[in-house]
Amino acid sequence: MYRPRMNNHRTLKEYLLDHLADHPEQRELVMIMSNMATIGETISTQTNKAGLAGILGSLGQTNIQGETIQRLDVFANELCKKYLRATEHFAAMASEEESTVVDMGNDGARAKYVIAFDPLDGSSNIDVNVSIGTIFSVHKRLFNIDRLDERQFLQKGRDQVLAGYILYGSSTVLVFSFGDGVHEFTLDHGIGEYFLSNERVMIPPVAEYYSVNEGNTVYFERKDADFIAYLRDEKKLSARYIGSLVADFHRNMIKGGVYLYPAVDKGGKGIYTGKIRLNYELKPMAFLLEQAGGLATDGEMNILDMEPTSLHERRAAILGSRDIVEEYMAR
């Protein structure tokens, strides 16, 4: 049945064709981006009917991160592997849900890239209908080492060639960058097409909001707890915290704000450690943020300048509008 286009915005397909015309050397990346859009559409459809499909709830198991595995985590992870393996452009894959590098079965000349992703960030919130998302990060394959070597993924965030996320909320939004600005597309489920909704996304330079789990303040270092109190009591920023990284990040990038997850000491031993995963979350978010005019740090250095030391490394995270992040780093 014919369904008329609901707006005059450019479609994702049109945008990618235009991008390819300007950057013919990025043909594979354009195809990868198209594939990620398909993955997002499929996951979006399934999450919308998860309760009816019987894929809500946990499996009673934990993943490599020590977190409870949700049925939707498994579904999204397997879906991503299936679609990404079929592209033949990836030599290897790393998933938040997998303990080791995943063999994609591709070792030919076409397998020029490796991809790290969080298949379903915030999945524990799906039962209560809170926004969740998929995050992805693409690097060039290092041909001087084995394709399944963990070092394929221990590259600096600044060396990413494509990064993005798909937010499943009141609408499904795809945000990505090839390194030439950040672009946002919104999915029209009626015709199965993404339309350009925000070209050249730029985060407001002055923050109006801060996002942090203030229930963790007792576990933060004193300097971090004091900084959060400063944002609330002196800067008079408004608090907005959803508890889903993709949702909090997206809101702050559009509205102007900062996401904070300082290092915590929950063991009471004076050992403070970060929680956000460097490869699956921080690197791609920092890449997008810098392209949009913001900044990302762990409190010590720029996230994009970090060289991961392990596949599942975690760091503290301060992500957002330039004014607050610079103020945090200057303390």
The overall average pLDDT, rounded, is 92
Can you tell me the CATH architecture of the largest domain?
2-Layer Sandwich
Q: Helix count, per DSSP?
A: 8
Oligomer: single chain
State the order of secondary-structure elements, H for helix, E for strand.
HHHEEHEEEEEEEEEHEHEEHEEEH
Shape: globular
Helix content: 25-40%
The CATH class of the largest domain is Alpha Beta
Give me the secondary-structure category: alpha+beta
How far the N terminus sits from the C terminus, by CA atoms, comes to 60 Å
Protein name: Fructose-1,6-bisphosphatase class 1
EC number: 3.1.3.11
Binding site for Mg(2+) 1: 96, 118, 120
InterPro entries: FBPase_C_dom, FBPase_class-1, FBPase_N, FBPtase
What can you tell me about this protein's structure?
Homotetramer. Mg(2+) 2 binds at residues 118, 121, 281. It catalyses: beta-D-fructose 1,6-bisphosphate + H2O = beta-D-fructose 6-phosphate + phosphate. One of its GO terms (molecular function) is magnesium ion binding. Its main location: cytoplasm. The protein is α+β, with helices and mostly antiparallel strands. It has two domains: 12-198, Fructose-1,6-Bisphosphatase, Chain A, domain 1; 209-329, D-Maltodextrin-Binding Protein, domain 2 (3-Layer(aba) Sandwich), CATH 3.40.190. Helix content is 30%, strand content 24%. It has an eight-stranded mixed beta sheet, with helices on both faces. It starts with 11 loop residues before the first helix and ends with a helix.
